[in-house]
Write a structure and sequence with these properties.
CATH class of chain A: Alpha Beta
Number of strands of chain A: 4
Distance between the termini of chain A: 15 Å
CATH topology of the largest domain in chain B: FAD/NAD(P)-binding domain
Number of domains of chain A: 1
Largest sheet of chain B: 8 strands, mixed
Largest interface: A-B, 21 and 34 residues
Radius of gyration of chain A: 12 Å
Distance between the termini of chain B: 59 Å
CATH topology of chain A: Alpha-Beta Plaits
Shape of chain B: globular
Number of helices of chain A: 2
Strand order of the largest sheet of chain A: 1-4
CATH superfamily of the largest domain in chain B: FAD/NAD(P)-binding domain
CATH architecture of the largest domain in chain B: 3-Layer(bba) Sandwich
Structural class of chain B: alpha/beta
Strand content of chain B: 25-35%
Helix content of chain B: 25-40%
Shape of chain A: globular
Oligomer: heterodimer
CATH class of the largest domain in chain B: Alpha Beta
């Protein structure tokens, strides 16, 4: 099992291009005209969005899991 | 809550969306075209090059307001600096001003009778008894329910509405390119040609491009495999620095992700259709998708009109069938070429460009891959290499 993560955006780098939403296999990211939104419950920690971002605006933070 | 009712709702006013909206409106049906951006066409996510043929083929006016300049061919550069120039006597394409072009496409849709709403973001689909009957959207802070017979998801690479409606538009990360581009002042590149640089250190799996706008201005960009750990921006900045190109006069920074393979299999499900980038309908070799979006939009709109005329939504399935029999078949072949070219080493690229620059340029310029392969197979350095031979034979 990959480590469970939370995706965070660096808003100063992000262009809201929508690429991360496009490659996300589970619709865990939505890019609105006014902002970037992450849905933790849908994320499968695959990190595809992080690699894809053309400007490196996304990163992962470990998610604390109980037990 | 505000409610609306249309025969067809099109989500996304890029290239495919307005073409569908225009064609369906022309046939006399009510259409709403929405886009989340406050200004249709802005920001651009494109190098803006398009083939000359599309204007006739898709009934688009050749309007100087969105044509920056005519282009006469291309120049390819290998990693060690070998060059291959393909120049036609007549203009083979143009560099557009996408911000004007996209807005004009939406304008043509509106002129044909479609309603168009910018700054209107689709949020979800509305289902009743398991069937998709419309979408929820938001215009500024005002929620809207839009009821409709048919939904067209032309929502770009994000493909969010298509997927919320149950269409499977998933493609693995290797089937996307990450792109980064400056529109900037640049000199020293023939402004009648587009310029492309290849190499595994230059742009892994992709290329660097200079698409001229005016004599001294260009879209200077890069696409690399999206599963590459480094960013597209990193590689473009590195290339500009290595080539000592000044980056002090940057007019725009453009960013985006491009689907370059893995075309969506099922393009219509019940009353929902997916077109353009959302359907991954892009040329996998060069990452251009405007002509493909126009083609798919044209096929989709034909079957939407038929389904509405006959009051039978099962006609929408013919969109999937016709696209796969025509452009889908062609693009599958192009994808095969991409799968081979991405295995080429820098030495291969040097050798191939060197060989082709001495071959029958006119035939190669015709874009005939068969002629390219034939020319390559004549060369001893290809014939003597089992690996090169087997790569090329994959294409025959």
């Amino acid at each position: 099992m990959p480590e469970k993560i939370r995706i965070v955006v660096n808003e100063d780098r992000c262009y809201l291009c929508g690429g991360c939403a496009g490659v996300c296999p589970t619709l865990a990211i939505e890019v609105h005209s006014n902002g970037w939104e992450f849905f933790q419950d849908k994320c499968i920690s695959c990190r595809i969005c992080i690699n894809t971002c053309p400007v490196g605006a996304l990163s992962a933070e470990p998610l604390e899991v109980e037990g | 809550m505000k409610e609306m009712k249309y025969d067809v709702v099109v989500v996304g006013a890029g290239i495919a969306g307005p073409i569908v909206a225009r064609n369906v409106a022309k046939a006399g049906y009510s259409v709403l075209l929405i886009d989340k951006k406050p200004a249709i066409g802005s920001p651009k996510q494109c190098a803006e090059g398009i083939n000359m043929k599309v204007f006739d083929e898709y009934d688009i006016p050749y309007d100087k307001r969105f044509i920056n300049r005519e282009i006469y061919g291309a120049k390819l550069y290998s990693p060690s600096g070998y060059e291959l120039e393909l120049r036609y006597k007549e203009a083979s394409g143009v560099i557009l001003e996408r911000k004007v072009f996209d807005k004009m496409l939406a304008y043509y849709a509106a002129k044909a009778g479609a309603d168009v709403l910018a700054r209107t973001e689709a949020q979800d689909v509305i289902r009743k008894e398991g069937k998709v009957v419309g979408i929820t959207a938001k215009h500024e802070n005002e929620p809207v329910e839009i009821y409709t017979n048919i939904i067209v998801a032309a929502d770009g690479v994000e493909s969010t509405i298509a997927r919320k409606a149950g269409l499977n538009t998933y493609a693995p990360p290797h089937e996307f390119d990450s792109s980064y581009e400056y529109e900037m002042l640049i000199e020293g590149y023939d402004p009648d040609l587009i310029h492309l640089w290849f190499g595994n250190e230059v742009a892994p799996r992709g290329y660097v491009w200079v698409f001229p706008k005016d004599e001294d201005r260009a879209n200077v960009g890069i696409g690399i495999a999206s599963d590459h750990p480094e960013t597209a921006k990193h590689y473009l900045d590195k290339w500009l620095e290595e080539n000592k190109i000044q980056t002090k006069r940057i007019l725009e920074v453009n960013v985006g992700v491009v689907p370059v393979g893995g075309f969506v299999k099922e393009l219509a499900k019940d009353n929902v259709l997916v077109v353009g980038d959302a359907a991954r309908q892009v040329n996998p070799m060069h990452g251009g998708g405007m002509a493909e979006a126009m083609g798919a939009g044209t096929i989709a709109s034909k079957w939407i009109v038929k389904a509405l005329e006959e009051e039978n939504l099962s006609f929408l399935q013919n969109y999937t069938k016709e696209w796969w029999e025509t452009d889908g078949k062609r693009l599958e072949k192009v994808l095969k070429v991409r799968h081979v070219t991405e295995k080429l080493t820098d030495e291969d690229l040097d050798l191939f460009i060197q060989i082709l620059s001495g071959a029958d340029a006119e035939k190669i310029a015709g874009g005939d891959y068969g002629e390219v392969i034939k020319a390559l197979l004549k060369h001893p350095k290809v014939l003597m290499s089992k690996r090169r031979l087997s790569l090329l034979k994959e294409l025959l």
